[in-house]
């Protein structure tokens, strides 16, 4: 089955700097890769997603890149702000599950220091 | 937030007792999911539903059962709770397969 590994587990950056979180997946047939943000005590919420037919996607200060050959994808946050502090989860949805199953990484706790 | 509620929001129970958690949605989404969240493990899928009375197992289904008798309600039952089932449980819904999932507020369950 699919396995998603996420690094680093903790990331601390200075306000204004960039943050990069990386994930690898094992099932080459996975075709949907969402990223969720979870603030302390809150529910996870989608911040960006990418499909396997696209290499990069941007939305204001966040971007996701996908390398299908290497089976890894990354989240990039530029000009970080204190409100970006949260736990971020990457995920992959294997095609063989028909999109029913989303496998999540273990999460990255991002601290943005003011 | 999408119209998803979970009840109860907090529960403390004893080992061996049955527990039922409820997820209710007002979005009329076909797909519903139950996850558990534990430190170091992210979110792990317990069971999911692709329609009324249509359910299937996820990654960590042992010790859990589900039922969906109406589009809006998805119940998760722990037949005989164990301490290893102490966790935060999230319900999620999606309009289609392989698309954004909207999560409920979560239920914190403690099994003593």
Supply the key terms.
heterodimer, A: 114 residues, mainly beta, six-stranded mixed sheet, 11 strands, globular, B: 112 residues, seven-stranded mixed sheet, 0% helix
Textual characterization of the structure:
The complex is a heterodimer of chains A (114) and B (112). Chain A is mostly beta strands. Chain A has no helices and 11 strands. The N and C termini of chain A lie far apart (41 Å). The model of chain A has no long low-confidence stretch (mean pLDDT 93). With 112 residues, chain B is mainly β. Chain B contains no helices and 11 strands. Chain B has strands at 4-7, 10-13, 19-25, 31-38, 42-51, 54-57, 64-70, 73-78, 87-94, 102-103, 107-111. In chain B, a hairpin with a 2-residue loop joins strand 5 and strand 6. At the A-B interface, strand 4, strand 5, strand 9 and strand 10 of A face strand 5 of B.
Helix and strand layout, with pairings?
The complex is a heterodimer of chains A (114) and B (112).
Chain A: E1 4-7, E2 10-14, E3 19-25, E4 30-38, E5 45-51, E6 56-59, E7 62-67, E8 72-77, E9 86-94, E10 103-104, E11 108-113
Parallel strand pairs in A: 2-11
Antiparallel strand pairs in A: 1-3, 3-8, 4-5, 4-9, 6-7, 7-8, 9-10, 9-11
Chain B: E1 4-7, E2 10-13, E3 19-25, E4 31-38, E5 42-51, E6 54-57, E7 64-70, E8 73-78, E9 87-94, E10 102-103, E11 107-111
Parallel strand pairs in B: 2-11
Antiparallel strand pairs in B: 1-3, 3-8, 4-5, 4-9, 5-6, 7-8, 9-10, 9-11
H/E element order of chain A: EEEEEEEEEEE
Percent helix among the residues of chain A?
under 10%
Low-confidence stretches of chain A: none
Radius of gyration of chain B: 13 Å
The overall average pLDDT of chain B, rounded, is 95
In terms of per-residue confidence, which ranges of chain B show pLDDT below 50 for 5 or more consecutive residues?
none
Q: What is the overall shape of chain B?
A: globular
Q: What is the tally of helical segments of chain A?
A: 0
Which whole number gives the mean pLDDT of chain A? 93
């Amino acid at each position: 089955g699919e396995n998603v590994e996420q690094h680093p587990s903790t990331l601390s950056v200075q306000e204004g700097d960039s943050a990069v979180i990386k994930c690898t997946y094992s099932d080459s047939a996975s075709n949907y890769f969402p990223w969720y943000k979870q603030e302390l005590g809150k529910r996870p919420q989608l911040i960006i997603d990418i499909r396997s037919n696209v290499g990069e996607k941007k939305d204001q200060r966040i971007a996701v890149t996908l390398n299908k050959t290497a089976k890894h994808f990354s989240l990039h946050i530029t000009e970080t702000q204190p409100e970006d502090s949260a736990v971020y989860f990457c995920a992959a949805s294997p095609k063989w599950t028909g999109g029913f199953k989303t496998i999540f990484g273990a999460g990255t706790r991002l601290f943005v220091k003011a | 937030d999408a119209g998803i509620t979970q009840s109860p929001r907090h529960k403390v129970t004893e080992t061996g007792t049955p527990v039922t958690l409820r997820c209710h949605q007002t979005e009329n989404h076909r797909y519903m999911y139950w996850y558990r969240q534990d430190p170091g493990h992210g979110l792990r899928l317990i069971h999911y539903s692709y329609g009324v009375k249509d359910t299937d197992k996820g990654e960590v289904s042992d010790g859990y059962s589900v039922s969906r008798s109406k589009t809006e309600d998805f119940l998760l039952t722990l037949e005989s709770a164990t301490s290893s089932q102490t966790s935060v449980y999230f319900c999620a819904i999606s309009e289609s397969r392989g698309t954004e999932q909207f999560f409920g507020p979560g239920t914190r369950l403690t099994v003593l």
